[in-house]
Amino acid sequence: MARKLRFFKEQMTKSGVAPSPRPITRADIDLDDLEVKFGELEAELMEMNSNSEKLQRAHNELLEYKLVLQKAGEFFYSVQNNATAQQRKSGTLHICEGSIDSPLLLEQEMSVDPSKQIKLGSVSGVIQRKKAMAFERILFRATRGNVFLKQAVVEQPVVDPISGEKVEKNVFVLFYSGERVKSKILKICDAFGANRYPFTDDLGNQFQTITEVTGKLSELKTTIDVGLMHRGNLLRSIGYQYEQWNLLVKKEKSIFHTLNMLSIDVTKKCLVAEGWCPVFAAKLIQDALQRATTDSNSQVGAIFQVLTTKESPPTYFRTNKFTSAFQEIVDSYGVAKYREANPGVYTIITFPFLFAVMFGDWGHGICLLLATCYLILREKKLSSQKLGDIMEMTFGGRYVIMSMAMFSIYTGLIYNEFFSVPFEIFGPSAYGCRDLSCRDASTAGLVKVRDTYPFGVDPNWHGTRSELPFLNSLKMKVSILLGVAQMNLGIILSYFNAKFFNNNLNIWYQFVPQLIFLNSLFGYLSLLIIVKWCTGSQADLYHIMIYMFLSPTDDLGENQLFPGQKFLQIVLLLLAFVAVPWMLVPKPFLLKKQHQERHQGQSYALLDSTDDSLEMESHDDSHGHEEFEFSEVFVHQLIHTIEFVLGAVSNTASYLRLWALSLAHSELSSVFYEKVLLLAWGFNNVFILIIGIIVFICATVGVLLVMETLSAFLHALRLHWVEFQNKFYEGDGYKFCPYAFTFLSQKD
Q1: d(CA 206, CA 211)
Q2: How confident is the model at residue 113 (pLDDT cuts 50, 70, 90)?
Q3: 453: alpha, beta or left? (left if phi > 0; alpha if psi -120 to 50)
């Protein structure tokens, strides 16, 4: 049935008939009757196609025949006219007996018996134009030049009766003498695919034949049109119900495919199915089975029983249309192991927030929000349509983009940027001019005259000479704080994973040393940043961190931020050095000890063991009694330790992309505003202003709202996959794929 539906689809595609988007819903469709109907429709369509091909071939042959009659008739007519003219001319010349041009053997020629004169035969037809030269050459060589060939070009392409394609052709007429030459000519015509048609040199017969061919063409055209109309009506009637039939066949096919995976009971009287189901759905499945037993009037009900198994179950997270896109971001990295901590819960907040840190502009955020609101408001209509690849991906992540836009508005208000223009939204600026000589905010001499601006960056920072150093320092330090906080969150989640799976080794020899190492260095750096902000100190944090390693016992001097800082640095440095062997050495030896204790005294089995116990023992041997390779475990732990130690530095530096992308976005926005919009405004010309506005809109949409959005999205994706999830997330599970008819539209 699926093959017949594909056949119907192909025929509708060839005829340009589209299936009805709103199928006729009928609940009383029997599959057996439907299969019979499919067979009848297929036979009818195949018969129509066969008849149509025969009629179309005959029509194309008649068209070629008509061309041969026309072109060859023109040739014969012109030759007869030329011959008549030459005879008249030669008759006047024969009057002069002594003429030097008179034929010497005229009397002998006239005395030859007409029955002994050589009669010429002719072959006419059409041949492809690209083969015409080779055709003429082969004829000349095969007959030693004893043929006369005349060709005429057909101006319009002709439909070939055999291939059904339009090709450029020539009409040819061949004159020959002898049956032997004729057989050679016919073989050459067949070899070159030339279509031969009969032709008479009698003008009266030619006109009669042309009239007959024209009449047959009109009759065939009428017959073909009627057949195509009937075929189109049949395909349209199929198209009205095609979607419903296709869905019904897909459901039945998926049911049989699932039934084929069931096993037969030893009594061969029932089928046994084993599968996974969520705990909350067990009661629903039992109710569904009970309803199926009642509806089918079965005397034996289905038995639902929960089995115990050592196999790892699949992973299933209940999501909705808002959270599903965030979960897909996590699943693209790897599906969580059963009962493993799900990063998707935190990704809902952290992903759009880190994006917004790089895309902070509340004007651009509003544009993104309006675009996603359009997609969300029309989601019912758009979800039923076939969109392009890029549009399909954008529509699927509409709620992610909406979250990113809302967070971008928030960070844009903190940065105080609306298309790079600052606004005094939350009150007047805290800075004013020192005296009358200070005329605008871009000059020196601003002093604090009011309370600190209540929310975000003060608008008077924009345009000053210290704007870039100030924002660079601010965004760079914020990036480090956010990075250290998110990496600490990942390490803390690794503790909950280890605690849930009762893995005390990972708690004491992975979680604890990793937390100590990261916070001894970069947690301390975050503390220095916060203290410096709170105290207003001028201490050089670069100098503090560098000399913390080079000379930890030296006096800090003016770089000291709080009492006891030197002693704290020495303690943190020692803890960082201790954490490295703490991660590396103990765990492999403890794993070896656990392996030896687990398998001690299990080398022998009882002689009276049953077959089941032996089978279970062999199953356990294949999983738990593998040889413990200490060298492999130690090398693996060494790689893991080096990766974390180096990754702590590189991952922290990787979060500086938040600062770099935010700065690039701000500067690009400022360039487009000042060098395009303001420059066009300064010409005081309406035409130039309109061009400037168009260029500004195109640059903003193309560069800032499309390319910068994609760039910030990919960078936020990398921060979650590499810097955050590798601290705790293994992602070696497999997804729960329930049997449902809703997935049939997504796959064949």
Answers
A1: 9
A2: low
A3: beta
